[in-house]
Amino acid sequence: MTVPQIELNDGNSIPQLGFGVFKVDPEETERIVTDALEVGYRHLDTAMIYGNEVGVGNAIKALGIPRNELFITTKLWNSDQGTDSARDAMDLSLEKLGLEYVDLYLIHWPRPDLDLYLETWLAMEKLKAEGKTRSIGVSNFHRPHLDKIIAGSSTVPAVDQIELHPAFAQRDLRSYGAELGMHIEAWGPLGQGKYDLFSEAALQSAAETHGVSPAQVAIRWHLQSGIIVFPKSNSRERMAENFDVFGFELSADEMASIDAIDRGQRVGTNPDEATF
Asked: Is 90 exceeded by the pLDDT of residue 23?
């Protein structure tokens, strides 16, 4: 099956559905990512702080998939913010991944208390110019953080990766991203198991109508909302199920019912308060 490609504001394209490795055990990463790639995923999302970039790189190398068929994202951790630290962190991530470049490099959190994210963003622009990453973006940035880096640089982030799921739909930030020409990626698209998303009547009804699982409905809702999404699973069977979301389409009424689940229920850390 063909995963839709979304054109970013820098002219590069990103597969709309990918595979995330947050909290994947480094010892298990190569096996799990190999499963994901064999299922058909070509978009992988990792980060330095996950500790599993080596496993991701080993899986890529072992399968021998042409580099131009893959889209690899990694992220700069908070302790590496700053001009020189960002460059060193980029080089270390590339070494661990066994790659000459990544497709997307993100500032993982703004950490407004450090107030280094603009300086770091300017360093990211240089890394892109040097070909170490094809696109640059941010993660967990709110509007004030976005405004600061856009005003102080020449680049609008290609993406903002944020907590987003039916109970926390982030409509204002999504709308602002659209105004900027910046795409939104969802982390925790299934709520990270921190609330009973799959018991929501809107998901259960749509799942029954289409003969799919509530998880597939939730992923389909993200896709039809124009959001880039990468569910995570350690189970090959579940990976395949999460990938099999292109054989049905939610109706306008079904989309509206899922939209109505939104209750501003954040399950992760508020970026304005993050100090880790």
From this structure: no
Per the residue annotation, which of 41, 50, 105, 117 is the catalytic one? 50
Task: Work out how many domains the chain is built from and give that number.
Answer: 1
Does residue 192 contact residue 209 with C-beta atoms inside 8 Å?
no
| Global model pTM greater than 0.70 | yes
Is 101 an annotated catalytic residue? no
Place of tokens 């900027």: 180
Instruction: Give the number of other CB atoms < 10 A from CB of residue 265.
Output: 15
User: 205-245 pLDDT, tens per residue?
Assistant: 999 999 999 999 999 999 999 999 999 899 999 999 999 99
pLDDT band (50, 70, 90) for residue 24: confident
Q: Which domain holds residue 173?
A: 5-194+227-234
Tell me the C-alpha distance between 156 and 9, whole Å: 8
Amino acid at 184: I
- Tokens representing residue 192 in the block: 């990270």
Q: Is residue 25 part of a domain?
A: yes
The CATH number of whichever domain residue 113 belongs to comes to 3.20.20.100
Distance in angstroms (rounded) separating the CA atoms of residues 5 and 7: 7
**Domain annotation covers residue 115:** yes
- CA dihedral 264→267→268→273, nearest 10 degrees, is 50
Residue 204 covered by a domain: no
Report the largest interatomic distance among the alpha carbons of the chain, rounded to a whole angstrom. Answer: 54
Cα 55 to chain centroid distance, Å, stands at 18
